[in-house]
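WARN retry 2 of 3 for item q-0093 after timeout on previous attempt; input resubmitted unchanged.
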Amino acid sequence: MEINVKSDWFNAELSAVKRGFNLSLFKALNPPWMPARVVRFDGCSPGDLVQLKLGLWPMQMDWESKITEENEGLEAWYFVDEGVVLPFFLKHWRHVHRVEYLNGRCRVIDQIELEFKTAIWAWIFMPLMRFQFAYRRPIYATWNWK
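OK item q-0093 returned
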């Protein structure tokens, strides 16, 4: 299954957006209905790890992603995180964070490939996942990218 979400274009330099992909933005992108505690956040470069505890006690799930790719050009920058340890309902996770740049404006594109362990988990969680990434669109557009 796939999720593809594009933000609106916003005024920012590509280098500022790249710098802005930090722990503060990561926390801001987390919707309030999905409690997540950041255990580790190394950054967005290959080899970096992101570890989370999802949910509330006593029902917490571990999540760990590894940054496996990064590439930057004059008109785009992207990095890829891939699931290493995933919640019980997910089998596969690959998330491409792509920033496109054109005439002093940027937009962020989230491209997620995910596979659920069963069809019932997909039926339950896919709408929540789509909503979670749609939640990010206005945050990208209004974030202080200085």
